[in-house]
Amino acid sequence: MIDSLREQCSLLIKSDSQKYSKIATFLENDNCFFEIDMETSYAILSDLLVKEEDIARVYQALIRVENFRP
Amino acid sequence: MSKNELYEPFLSKEKFYTLDELANIYGEYIRRNCAISLVLKDEETFTKYKNEDLIEISSGEGVKSVSSKLIQDILSDSGMYKYLQTNLDNRLGIAARFDYIFDSDTIVSIKLTRYEIMEAFTKISDKLNQKEKMRLAVIKNSLDLFSCEQRYSNYTHTSYIDDEKIEIPASILLQILTMDEQSFASFINNPVSFGYKRKHLAYVLIDFIEKERIRAKYVFPEKVYMRYKSLANYQLIDFEALNKNSIRNDYTEEGKSIVDVLTINDELLEYLDKEIDKTYSTLEKSLYYYIKLCELFTSDPNFYTQDYASSRSDVSTKGPNDAQITPKDFIFLYAKLLDHLGVVYSFDPLFDRREGYLSFRCGEFLMELTSFDAIAKNDLANIKVNDEIANLTCINKNAATKQKFSEKINQIYASIKTKHENAKRFSETLAEYQSNLSKRPIPLKEKVFTLLKEICRSNLTGVDIFAYEKKVFSAIFANDKRIKITFMYIENESGLHPVTVISIKDTGYQYFVVDQTSPEIIKPISYQSMQKMVERNDIHYIGDQTILGITDIKEREKTL
User: In CATH, what number does B258-409 get?
Assistant: First the structure.
């Protein structure tokens, strides 16, 4: 899941390098959605053009135990 | 026939006492003490043997002077020669001892080991006549490697290595010293030879040579001696750590281990394990813990005014919220962590003085942690400013092991530094991103639903669930005071099992109990049931004990 967000980010970086290079920095960290509060995570997903109605489901998938690297 | 009867008939009666004569004149005590010596009757001869025509020979302890007159007499005098032959295989390795008795009960001696006597014979070999040369050849023959192999052909040497009894025939041990270069290289490179571990073979070989005083008893060719030396100084096989740190030396006058009774703060353990690489070996963990402790703690300024011996205090509170520590307590705390990792350690007997240290071992590595007393050599300061680590060192004599240790600790140190840099970059970027953000609030209900859904579907059991729950909780409810998560163990018939309580203060109070062992996993419970639950005395909290509407109210009542 996080890999497809990284891919999406690399596609969007040309459109707004300032914003998306920041998001790219977050996405370098496999655990980034465990380190960032839920509201900011939702905003990141929205910036990555995840559809509004899918954001909650995508977020839920990102914070699954399988995606947690202790 | 006793040994003295073999040579006494050949001794000069004017020059030496027999053992019976000694007993008659000086008593049984002197006889017993001189049982393996030749006792001179005349002080003048003894002085000559001590001081006349001195030559220098190398001995186990360095250079030694012996009288060439004495050495030549041993070969020319039949009685002295017979005595030497009889005494050559004595277990103490003293091939010849010449005594003189002063004032009836004071014995002065000239002692020569087999090795020393052979050195001395070689030095005077030019001066020897044919008969003496022949006698020397006989002696040499009985001191050589072959003779050693014969003497120990049926002997098995026993050593105890880390409480394991290891028995190896001496014939195998001597074979290691004499085998050709190719076989020796194969022995050095293979973890197992002759059915024994390489390190055990090396350990038992050196133990055999030392305990049986082989070097004092026999004269080995230079090549064999060099091979022994290269094994004994751990350069070829590093077995130095075997049998080390077997005694902890941390017992109080009542016989209790200081480290055993120490407890480590949960927050400190959490801090240490927070970012640790789970694939780290025990050695790597112990080095990682050390660096993290040095990053966290600062020296207690009162330490320098305290009496060192009595300056130990309670370390159970020490952690992120109580980070001032005396160097001595730091070392005890570190020893406790080593114990926790299953690492054996021992305190220097002088530990209660400032120069004492803690030593420990992991695999082949032997390490030493010295006190942070000297300002110039203080890792509590060094590590905070990315300086070189000075107090924790590898004390192996083997250069390759030292190098490996140095690479290992630098690698861990560098990875911690990289993590810090990444974390700093992450939080700075996050702050920048959030500064331009208008956050859309998410309803509490949606957040609770997200949390409970994830907890419910995770297959984690036991204590592993806590780390995950904590992480998800802090992401979803960062700084939200309307909800709390509380971790605890509850005792039941099968022992302790982990339970999480989620308390929510919205329009009223709501409680959820997460218990992976129950069929429904998450169970909503009423305020009254929650109250009943916290009143049980079989609850052991982990970290924060706050349960909204229950324990926080109790605390408030207490303060009122």
Answer: 3.10.620
